[in-house]
Amino acid sequence: MEIRGRLLILRRQRLLFSHAFNVPRRLLILLLALICPLSTLLAENWPCWRGPREDGTSIESNVPIHWSATSNVVWKTELPGFGHASPIVYGDHIFTVSAVTETQDRLLLCLDRKAGKMLWQRTVLNATLEDKHTLNSFASSTPVTDGTLVYVAFLDREQMFVAAYDLKGTQRWSVRPGPFFSHHGFCSSPVLYRDKVIVNGDHDGDSYLIALDRADGHTLWKTPRENHTRSYCAPIIREMAGRPQMVLSGNKCVASYDPNNGSRHWIIDGPTEQFVASPVYSEKTGLIYITAGYPAHHILAISPDGVGDVTLTHILWRTTRGAAYVPSPIIEGDYFLVISDSGVAHCFDARTGKLAWAERLGEEHASLVSANGRVYFLNDRGVMNVVQCGPEFVRLAQNEIGERCFASPAISQRQIFLRGDKHLFCIGTKE
């Protein structure tokens, strides 16, 4: 992230502190300098799918570049069962989910961030295993936390199942908010907005978006989706074009909704049928970007200021080159970066769509993350290519952990958390 962006974040933190405690500006700056080094002020949690901004970006600067299976591994913890869900990090807690096929248990796991010790595990659901695609898992939906409760989503036969747990592992509520059927399985990562837990219910039936109350799980709003087609896209929620917008691709369209009540702002038909990758948004360009999908592959840059059907008016640029179906893309500075499922990375100018470079990095299904101007590409073999973002391809490092990886990484407190087939790895230096 650019220095200007970091300073804006520090300014917001200073204003919040100053308003709360009525501390003079000069004294506050001195106090912050004495007690909080810059790296500490820029440390952040990774509380949900794709992190604090739901787009894979980290504001941290001292994120590891080099490691191996035997170096710069702070800890390595074997996980029960198997799953593709990403880890999430809040303070000294790490959460993820897993599935034990022998017992048909879906688990919520809590680990200590500093040591990797398993603090507790809970069986969220015991139910018949659903049909799924060979590249999916029975625990693919990444949890989300607000620091008080952890929210998880699984499939209970042909019903979506959502539950909330406190940080000690006590279930606070569980609901089955609607049907869900797909031969490809389930992967709907919940997101939070104000008092709401929002989940995408696109499936091969009466599709919907639903908002549940964080406190008790009751339905706050439920919006039908017209096209009855499976997708696995988690929405991104941002202030865009002067209004809160929840944008997701799927169900044969790209659409924006008001997260307060589920009403639709605008819609773009297509450009294909099925979607997995999440959208990203650039504050620099003011554009939303999507990559999709199946059976056709497209990348679209969309102006989010429309109303109604904007298929013919609000696509600023598009290409079929380098599009991804599963891995979510990233915006880093002036560039839009994406990697196809077959493993070819592409870097485009975010404003114009002009191709800057393309490079083969290995078959990949994990989504991209970035920190300090570097983009991290994790391929299925567990090889992480660290690339300096810019107009030319510059590889800074190529690191292996010795396990296959399908889960997307998490970055928090100057460490990277990688989930392999069997273990969760903490990459960095000991505190």
Quick overview:
The chain is mostly beta strands.
Q: Could you tell me how far the N terminus lies from the C terminus, measured between alpha carbons in angstroms?
A: 24 Å
> Total strand count, please?
34
List the uncertain runs: 7-21
Main sheet overview? 5 strands, mixed
- For the CA atoms, what is the radius of gyration? 21 Å
Quick one: overall form?
globular
- Content of β-strand: 35-45%
> Percentage of helical residues?
under 10%
Strand order of the largest sheet: 1-28-29-30-31
Please, what is the average pLDDT?
92
Describe the protein's architecture and organization.
By secondary structure, the chain is mainly beta. The chain has helices at about 5-20, 25-35, 40; strands at about 55-60, 75-80, 90, 95-100, 105-110, 120-125, 145, 150-155, 160-165, 170-180, 190-195, 195-200, 210-215, 220-225, 235-240, 245-250, 255, 265-270, 280, 285-290, 300, 310, 315-320, 330, 335-340, 345-350, 355-360, 370, 375-380, 385-390, 395-400, 410, 415-420, 425. The longest helix is centred in the N-terminal third of the chain and has 19 residues, at about 5-20. Mean pLDDT is about 90; it is low at about 5-20.
What descriptors fit this protein?
single chain; 5-stranded mixed beta sheet; mainly beta; 431 residues; 3 helices; 8% helix
Blueprint (SSEs and pairs):
Elements: H1 3-21, H2 25-35, H3 38-41, E1 57-58, E2 73-78, E3 88-90, E4 93-100, E5 105-112, E6 118-126, E7 144-145, E8 149-156, E9 159-166, E10 171-179, E11 191-193, E12 196-200, E13 208-213, E14 219-224, E15 236-240, E16 243-250, E17 253-257, E18 264-269, E19 280-282, E20 287-292, E21 298-302, E22 308-309, E23 315-319, E24 330-332, E25 335-339, E26 344-349, E27 355-360, E28 369-371, E29 374-378, E30 383-388, E31 394-400, E32 410-412, E33 415-419, E34 423-427
Parallel strand pairs: 1-28, 18-22
Antiparallel strand pairs: 2-34, 3-4, 4-5, 5-6, 7-8, 8-9, 9-10, 11-12, 12-13, 13-14, 15-16, 16-17, 17-18, 19-20, 20-21, 21-23, 24-25, 25-26, 26-27, 28-29, 29-30, 30-31, 32-33, 33-34
